Amino acid sequence: MRTIDMHTHLVPQCLWRTVDAGQPWYGLRAESGPGANTLVREGHHIHMPGAKMRFTPEQRLQDMDTEGTDVQVVSIHTPLFGYELEPAQGLQLARDVNDEIASMTRQWPQRFAGLATLPVQEVSAAITELERAVTTLGLKGAELGTVANQGLSWDEPHFLPLFKAAESMGAVLFFHPHPVDNLALARTDKYGISNSIGVPVEDALLVATLIFGGIFDACPALKVCIAHGGGPACFGMGRMDRGWQVRSEARLHIQKPPSTYQRHLYYDCVTNSEAALRFLIDQVGVDRVVLGSDWPFVSWDPSPGGWVQNLSSLSAAEKAKILWQNLEELLGL
Amino acid sequence: MRSIDIHAHLTPQCFWRATTDNHDWHGLRREQDAQGHAYAVIGTQRQQLPPRAVWTPEQRLADMDSLGVDIHVVSPYSGFYNYHLESRIAIATSRDSNDEIRDMISQWPQRFAGLATLPMQDVPAAIAELERVMVQHGFKGAMIGDQINGRTLDDPQFLPFWKAAEQLGAMILFHQGGHTVVSPRIGRYHLPNSVGNLADRTITFATLVMGGVMDACPDLKICLSHGGGYTCYGIGRIDRNWHTRPDIRQLIPQPPSAYLRRFYYDCIVYTEASLRYLIDTVGVDRVVFGTDWPYDMAFDWPVSWILSLDSLTQDEKEAILWKNLERLLGL
């Protein structure tokens, strides 16, 4: 049985080479000098704990062999997007990262597929870079944050050309929140809540924003995948449907209840429990659920694919779809 | 078969009376737009009031009869928490509102029970008001917000309140007032409510548990409205955070999921699949009937909805509709 993992993070080697040489990488510096795993930019800290964050592609492949993962779909660690940079700097960051991801997919085409990062602070540049990434570099699409630059939501009209472009290229957009610096911080910075609750709420809010924003009516063939199973969007969809029924502002862009759009999206299986994954499958359909591991941040017992294989509430056919068939078709692997 | 509704709000008649002819109720005013919609105006905030908010107790009883609801455990309108105002104003509006609920209970003891609103920005005053309504007027507890002027309820300043609530046997119903964590990000499509309410309730669960309130007050009774938000669905990740972070693990002796059954949850989750999931996660003895009367987000036919659900047994339906609250609140 093949195993294709949609949700794997990369801290690019070009970043480590630069900061370990004592140079800033797009404003990021190693906090305590070369070898450090904490980077700083203008007072913002990015912690990247664990040796795997520094793995070379060869080390990564060994880890995949140990896990039994055939293909990793690689995307950068979201705190490194650089959406706050000047547009020209943001574009250069994206080109550097995307070139490195492409070098991995070119050298090991059977083992790696890639998602680009895009300089969304200038939509025209983001479209140009997506086109380069997909047509020239052979990447499968792009990873985007759950919130764009300057706190903007993706339903802002000026982002629509980006979605149109992705749709016309057949590019997959994989949305992933910032692991710490997200909307839960407005309430509390205690107990790791911004990661344990803020992250899935960001995912759910993104699902809601794309659906209510009419993105799937404007771009019916757009391919979108949400990290962490879309958070609790599927569980809370009933309340969104009720809001749509009773509030005219919720019906501004969509003529059907939001729940009817759930099956337009893909969701990874990072749901943290079998019951939650079973619920997700039952709500969105097994054709829409794909393997994701959140590599290297989550340790799976015994491995990402092995965890799915061992679930008693899923049929063999469902496991095959989640482990590889859905992504093989979605990404053309 | 009875039905007891723990999630039914009151916009007090004293507000409507006081604000006629442009007068004010402790500084709160009322406006009407060209379509005839009423608004409560508190400083620069303007909140629309639904048509049924003006109804008298008699009109409310007629609506309850029509819906098949026997008892409203009446709670205040969250728009009148007034936590951000001077505490003397919140004390005054809380007393007025609670006194009106007291009068409803005394006139129709078979149809109404009461949850107070409290001036939570002034913890001693909140405790005094909770004690007044519980001891003198037979209230069942109080409804409070997920945050008090930016502080979550695990803040040490609130511990005396929790101790008092525990000692009084008060049921504390959590319900957002105004903005949620979604509001600063996006105000469109009703998402601050339809996503934000659920996010806020989940954060409240996590802060009370990991902040040690549930360990400090083992007999505390808390009900999380809107089904506890995303708590039951998202508990796996909250547990993982506890398991993988030593600094969080040392806060509480058991994983957060071990505290799920310390809370009660109303049934306002809108879909049968989600209600079934809630029941299976927290236990049917922890799920209680709520409707969100009189707001537009309320169920249209709440009793009929519960009765119609194929995946619930008759025992489960009765537990949710009345038996759990009858036992919990002594009704």
Automatic annotation (TrEMBL), chain B:
Gene3D superfamilies cross-referenced by the UniProt entry: Metal-dependent hydrolases (3.20.20.140)
GO molecular function ontology, one term from the record: hydrolase activity
What GO terms describe the biological role, i.e. biological process, of this protein?
secondary metabolic process
Which Pfam families does this one have? Amidohydro_2
Query: Is Membrane one of the keywords UniProt gives this record?
Result: no
- Gene Ontology cellular component? cytoplasm
Q: Where is the Amidohydrolase-related domain?
A: 4-331
Report the InterPro entries cross-referenced here: ACMSD, Amidohydro-rel, Metal_Hydrolase
Q: Does the keyword Lyase apply?
A: yes
Name the record gives this protein:
Amidohydrolase
